[in-house]
Predict the 3D structure of the following.
Amino acid sequence: MNKKLIIFTDIGDTIIDETTEVRREKFGVVYSAACLPGAKETFLDLYRQGYTIVMVADGLEKSFHNTMEENGLDHIFSEWVISEQIGIEKPSPLMFATAMQRMGLTDADKHRVIMVGNNLARDMVGANRFGIRSVHMCCSDRYPVKASGPEEEPTWCIHHPEELLPLVDRLEKQLEGAAEQVC
Ligand SMILES: [Mg+2]
C-alpha cells in the first residue's frame, strides 16, 4: 500500500554534510560530498518503506546530481525541485508549490506533507508560510538553531537523521487512522 505521508526534503546539512563539500570554485558546483551520519540509511529506509520523497533544495542542479549519485541516493526522489531551475530560493512558496504541482498534489493534500530541513529561515519559514508541517534537522550549529520568531518555529525538531524514522512512522499511522475514520 502506498504511504499517505509525503516527505519534502532539503539536502545541505539535512542529508549532505556541508563541511565535506568539494568545489573547484567558491559557490560553484559541488563535485563530491559525504552524508551526515545516519542520513543515507534513514532516507534509504524511508524510500524502501514506500514513502514519496521530493527534493526541495537551494543550489545548482549539477551539485545535487553529483552528490546524490555519489552517495547512492539519486533513485529515491520522485521529483527534484532545485532553485537553479525555479529561479528563486526557499522560503519562496514557488519552490513548495512547484513540488506540489509536479506531484499532482493540491491544497487538500497539504496536511500529509512534511518539509525536512536544517535552515530555519529557509526551510521552516517556507513550510510555515506555505501551510505544511516542518521538521527541523538540528544536527549542527553551523546555522541558527533557535527560532527568531513564530515563522521560524518548526513543528518538530530532531537532532539526528535516524529520529526521522519513528516520527514519520507516527505521522503515517495518524494519517491512516484518520482515513479509516472517514471510511
Ligand atoms: Mg540546508
